[in-house]
Amino acid sequence: MNNRPSTDLWGVAEAYEGYMGRWSRGIAPLFTAWLAPEPGRNWVDLGCGTGALSACVSHTCRPGSLLGLDTSEGFLAYAAGQVPGAAFRVGDAADTHLPSGGFDYAVSGLVLNFVPDPARALREMARLVRPGGRVALYVWDYAGQMQIMRHFFDAARPIDPGSVAFDDGVRAPVCRPGPLRAALTGAGLEDVEVTALDLPAAFDSFEAYWAPFLGGTGSAPKYCASLDPQVRERIRQAVRAALPTGPDGEILLAVRAWAAKGTVRP
Fold first, then answer.
1. If we measure between CA atoms, which residue out of 176, 52, 60, 41 comes closest to residue 108?
2. What is the domain-level CATH number for residue 23?
């Protein structure tokens, strides 16, 4: 996403990769293709997480330089191993302490809804970019077509109404086209555009779908870890009954991210 709310929620890189990182790596190329960046430019990836977006930028966008910032040292170490040509350092997406106008592109993947003050983070992204440069990001469509999580929380809520406290579809209203457009415009960006990025998410079995929810990294896994085992099993069975499952146990879902981009005023 990344500049996470706490290392307690997002600090274990391998668990995050199994839960969401692999889908982020699928969305990232769609995002950079839509952004259509010029080669040889200077990039900063705010809330770089395990390096999904940074790796895509490095491999497909021919950057002149690439800096990734995150609050999780564990994520940064993982990202550095994935993207050896980039620089990674601990940093807050809303207060980077970097010089103004030093980058051509400021980007973030799956981050905006997790920072305490999204408007401040967007203003910081705009500050870091030279006039005429671009600010761009993407967030999961938690309330709609991020089906991996939507099936889980829709099944959990009738069993445990307290699950809503972990449901980013409820807690992250910015993850919709209208609020995203308004947020970028409010940060002073021009020519703001928003688009949907869609990716299939296939699982060989229910066990393959369910295992990442037990990793403890991310909103839904953190919720699972907090549950009494009997309640967790009831939710597990409800989720299993709700998922579209093929004759051989395979499960095919969709994941959607909303992407937004804008230009810093010349």
1. 52
2. 3.40.50.150
